[in-house]
Amino acid sequence: MMIPTLHADFDLQRYHTLACPSVAEYAVTVTERSHLSTALAWAKQRALPVQVIGEGSNLVPRDVVPGLTVINRLSGVRVLKQTADQVELRVAGGVSWHWLVLFCSAQHWYGLENLALIPGTVGAAPVQNIGAYGVELCDVFVSLDAVNIRSGEQHSFSAEDCQFGYRQSVFKGVEEGAWIITAVTLRLSRRFAPNLTYGPLADLNPASSAELIEHVIAVRQSKLPDPALIPNAGSFFTNPIIPIAQARSLQQTYAAMPVYPTADGEFAKVAAGWLIEQAGLRGDYAADTGIGPYEKQALVLVNPQRVASSKVMARAQEIAQIVEDKFGISIVPEPRLFP
Ligand code: FAD
Ligand code: NAP
Description:
Layout: E1 6-11, E2 23-30, H1 33-45, E3 50-53, E4 59-61, E5 64-72, E6 77-82, E7 86-92, H2 97-106, E8 131-132, E9 135-136, E10 141-148, E11 154-158, H3 159-162, E12 179-189, H4 199-202, H5 209-223, E13 232-235, E14 241-243, H6 244-253, E15 259-261, E16 267-270, H7 272-278, E17 292-293, E18 300-302, H8 309-327, E19 336-338
Parallel strand pairs: 2-5, 3-5, 4-19
Antiparallel strand pairs: 1-2, 6-7, 7-12, 8-9, 10-11, 10-12, 13-18, 14-16, 15-16, 17-18
The structure holds flavin-adenine dinucleotide and NADP nicotinamide-adenine-dinucleotide phosphate.
């Protein structure tokens, strides 16, 4: 069975944003759905494990990635339905997320503006239910198509099946590593009704979605390091959700601690970046590896010397321990160890 783009000992360092040295035993770039079936059958014959990578902006790869790594570049956008108010789109999993945001804005299809400049592919967006500035993927999600890695079976997942949560879904939970998301169906609005609830957007009165996108891009560029220049995987820790009583008690000591109560009022989200900063770790780059919380946004761990993932994880563990010792709050990495 021929797979034209199959490579052995494939260098993954340029295929993820943290730039750790990493080699895949085998890799294949998939641009068509039929390539994927062929690749999965090839791996099954050899009893090789299979994992999928999009743009590698939310993962920490091991030095050696065994089996077959599928690089998802499935492309295409199709309008499924359109009414006066809404449009439904089916987008292939390998499409660039930011490209999609710009494309939809240009078509006057609204709802993705706050999610501008998030790196990565459309197929990875449901994995952690990407979110920014008060908007999450699940707000516009209808369904997705995925292929089971073991059986090759195609399956459709509804929003309920995906079990979306805060930076969470079934694909980061019990179904982790089991599926390759090949397409996502979204429902967007044909009327511009911006969500400006977050502080950095609160003073805006955008006349168009393009204006809002431009602003989101500017805010992000002012504080987030460009992975092409300073390797990073975005926020390295997920904001912890803790019991509201614990949050209120901490506020008695740390009056400025930002606390965002959940809808039921029983829990509260705490900004992990604030905890890291208050622990004195912002801009504290390790002398031997350079790894540390970025000086303009402490939640982002940078890897300027492009060192191994084991060193990144060790530094992350050190940071998490310091935060836990100071605040009694456990913070866990958001990017996935790959595989
Ligand atoms: P990858 O990193 O390639 O993969 C991530 C995980 O998903 C891996 O476990 C992989 O196996 C799995 N996966 C990838 N594709 C598929 C697929 N098709 N099917 C099944 N599983 C798959 N995230 C936010 O939520 N909000 C932000 O604002 C945000 N900002 C960021 C800013 C920067 C500078 C960076 C570097 C990252 C940021 N992220 C943000 C994280 C990241 O961009 C998102 O999680 C994005 O969706 C990852 O897409 P990817 O294609 O790079 O996935
Ligand atoms: P920020 O504006 O400095 O805010 C710090 C934290 O406070 C954020 O994590 C955010 O939670 C929370 N927050 C702020 N205002 C809030 C509100 N009105 N209601 C509820 N929570 C609020 O954050 P930032 O680092 O510049 O990032 C801006 C946005 O981009 C955030 O939404 C963030 O999630 C997203 N982002 C994500 C990544 C990633 O890799 N996951 C990387 C960069 C930026 P939330 O994170 O829950 O929004």
